[in-house]
Structure formats: structure tokens, C-alpha cells
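Issue 218. Parser rejects a valid record. Input:
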Amino acid sequence: MYAFNLPQEQPDHVWRAVQTALAMRQDLTTFLGQKPAHIPSLQFGMGIHTGLVTTGYLGVKERYQYTVMGDTTNVAYHLCARAAGGQIIISEATLAAVPHPLEVLALGEVALKQRRQLLHIYELVGAGD
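Output the parser choked on:
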């Protein structure tokens, strides 16, 4: 998991998240194209959701760490879990917050645990300039 706009504000944090996911997918594709045959293949999906989170240090002395919590992190987790290898799934909130055109495929509405409202989700295919 990666959180943007924390601990310092980033006015373009949603755009950065989208660019990072696309770059990660491209880097993985490049790596897989160059890896020796004896190395097993690797795939992972990504999920991006935009919203408010609670941040802070949590834990005990032996394991004290900075973390993010809340509905936004839960939704991002569920989007990631739903994504197939190489797929990037974004929420409608993320799509609406990106100031640049994105190439997306509508995936419809999904019901997530602990949420009453259905969530509109999209597969991120690419980004414009």
C-alpha cells in the first residue's frame, strides 16, 4: 500500500498515484520481458481510491509505525484485491479527481463489505499528457 499527499500536501497527489501505477505496470512488463526463463513469472493488480484518511503513529514500543486508516484505505484494499495481474482498478472518486484525461474501461458497480452504496469502478488503461 502506498498513500499519497502524506505527510506533506501534494496538490497533484491523485495524478501522481495514477502515474505511479502506470509506471509500475510498465516496469513489471519490461522486467518480465527480460527475465531469464528459470525465474518464475510475477503478476499483481493495483487499486486506487481517493478520499480522506486518518493518519498517525500506531502500535506498541517494539512495533510503532506511521499508518493510514479509514474507509478510503478499505476501499483501495478491496479494489486491489479485485484487480487481476497487470490490471489497475480505480474508483469514480479517483477518476473525477484526476486533472488529465484518462483512458478507462467502465467495469460497472460493485458492492463492498461495510458499505451501503454501490461503487462505480473503472479499469485504468492509460493516461493522456
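Fixed in the parser; the record now loads. The first helix runs from residue 13 to 34.
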